[in-house]
Design a protein that fits this description.
Elements (H helix, E strand, L loop, with lengths): L13 E5 L4 H12 L3 E6 L2 H11 L3 E5 L8 H8 L8 E4 L14 H29 L2 E6 L12 H21 L4 E8 L8 H4 L2 H9 L13 H8 L10 E4 L7
Helix pairs in contact: 1-8, 3-4, 4-5
Length: 253
């Protein structure tokens, strides 16, 4: 029988995590490094990335880049491959929520949301896929959302981008899974991050969200570790094209 612990062992793997400067992106980068992967973190904030690299040590490297600039994606992909070689795993955690209400959505707000939340995961993956194909193994993990399937106030652009992530994940799986590249998505519930700062700044609102879950609480950072490690490892070899909601049952009620 196969050693169960080996299913989640990422030693020898190289991972790229976008949005690694904070929040769930940085948590994802942490857990992949803990599992043995060499991790390249990508984000705009150089100082935050440098602090993360110093904390993790040799298995970590940083690429400072603006993923919302679609014209820069090809060069960013090349830069990601410099520290440890081409990644086997890519986690797309970078995102933005402009929270513009429907009557006030701007073209600029719409464009940056779609470029960062939806276009970047596709075009960056597209640039990294040839190396995964050559190895016959790869893992792509997109970040979906409660708004992949639910409508929230002020979430027109964000919700549209995250609904798109659901279909993008399925399309990636259809395109590349026969090459050994599995594509899935994680849909976090309410976690205390910079992106959800306005939610947790209102204790009553945070309590209402917690009460709407099946488990009766909002997420803590540790809750993302197991699902992410599962989707990035050999443990998920027959799982592709799926959106795994890590939301305490919020979308089940």
């Amino acid at each position: 029988m196969r050693d169960a612990s080996a299913l989640f062992d990422l030693r020898g793997r190289v991972a790229c995590v976008t949005g690694a400067s904070a929040g769930l992106g940085q948590r994802a980068a942490d857990i992949l490094a803990d599992a043995g992967a060499r991790v390249v973190g990508v984000a705009r904030r150089a100082d935050a990335l440098e602090e993360w690299v110093e904390r993790i040590g040799k298995p970590a490297a940083a690429v400072t880049a603006d993923l919302s600039d679609r014209g820069a994606i090809a060069q960013i992909a090349k830069d990601i491959c410099v520290p440890f070689g081409a990644p086997d795993i890519v986690v797309h955690a970078a995102g933005i929520n402009t929270r513009e209400v429907a009557d006030e959505v701007t073209e600029a707000g719409w464009d940056i949301t779609m470029n960062l939340n939806l276009a970047a995961p596709f075009f960056l993956t597209q640039a990294l896929v040839p190396a995964m194909k050559a190895k016959g193994w790869g893992r792509v993990v997109n970040f979906a959302s409660l708004q992949t399937s639910r409508a929230f106030p002020g979430g027109v652009a964000y919700g549209a981008s995250k609904a798109g992530i659901g279909q993008l994940t399925r399309a990636m799986a259809e395109a590349w899974s026969r090459d050994g590249i599995n594509a899935n998505a994680i849909g976090p519930g309410f976690f205390p991050t910079e992106l959800t700062g306005p939610v947790f700044a209102d204790p009553e609102r945070a309590a209402r969200n917690a009460a709407q879950t099946c488990v009766g609480r909002n997420g803590v950072m540790e809750d993302i570790d197991g699902p992410l490690l599962f989707l990035c490892s050999d443990a998920s070899s027959f799982v592709t094209g799926q959106v795994l909601m890590v939301d305490g049952g919020y979308t089940a009620k």
